[in-house]
Design goal:
- The protein is of the alpha/beta class.
- It is 52% helix and 9% strand.
- It has 14 helices and six strands.
- Strands 3-2-4-1-5-6 form a six-stranded parallel β-sheet, with helices on both faces.
- β2, α2 and β3 form a beta-alpha-beta unit.
- α5 packs across α8, α6 packs across α8 and α10 crosses α13.
- The longest helix is centred in the C-terminal third of the chain and has 23 residues.
- The chain is globular.
- The relative contact order is 0.18.
Length: 332
Amino acid sequence: MQDQPLPIVCLLGPTGAGKTAAALALSQYKQIEIISLDSALVYRGMDIGTAKPTELERAAVPHHLIDIIDPAHAYSVAQFRQDALQLIDAIRGRGAQPLLVGGTMLYYKALTQGLHDLPPANPEVRAALNDRAEREGWPALHAQLAQHDPVTAARLAPNDTQRIQRALEIWQLTGEPMSALLERPPLASHPTAASQENPPHHFVPIALEPSDRNLWRTRLSQRFADMLKAGLVDEVTQLRTRQDLHPDLPSIRCVGYRQVWAYLEGKMDYEQMCTASITATSQLGKRQLTWLRTFPERHIIDCCAADASQQTITAALDIWDKGMKCNALLHT
């Protein structure tokens, strides 16, 4: 009887939870290769504000889906899913274990549950929406979204430009609200799920979550201060020298980059930029924690605990060990 592949451990958590440190610590106990589950790490030239693993860290453990896209381009959820599935097979073919690490929960959901049948991005529609937003403001477009898709509008802030744009784009392209499309069953989570030669992957999430929100927010503030000291403003200044980059791109809308860009344009002062960046980071983390609660099967570890990395190592090794024991039972 053919052995089943070991479960695929996915290390999830909000921004600033210590996922990278835990993953690197785990590499001391298991031959792993890390697949990034972070929609910001794909962009080249955006290192400081994304808390990208250092060159030394990436030399110590193979990392994938980092620095693969120019900031002027987009990287879709569908492309991530395709790339991640291919990487999982390739890594296992090399005798290592894939470890997925990150906080883009939409990536995780698409990988484990499949994709909804949504239309791809349409540059013409998006350009028209951006033109309208410049004339009328994003709150006006949010109000229009509320007329056509009140369910989606209710969960979006009036200044959530990226998601408002996407929801209106879907409505214009399909004539249906995005919320209705998302209620339909997703496409198969693995194209070969019914194949005996290629059994479906078994993903097991470990979630680093804060027990003390105040301590976690303090860490986020300190981390942003460290990014500024490391040269975040200079990094964004360099990006602004490019004529093909602008604030409406997904890359520049990343938390921190959008606020520093606005500061460099003179739209806010330095203190306002710092406050806005920390607030946006905290809001991102809250959304990530809300996503995590939709995965009840996750193993929760307190990221505020002094031994959070060791707890993560123990949990991951236990998951892999149980997988090996299940295979052993198949041969008894």
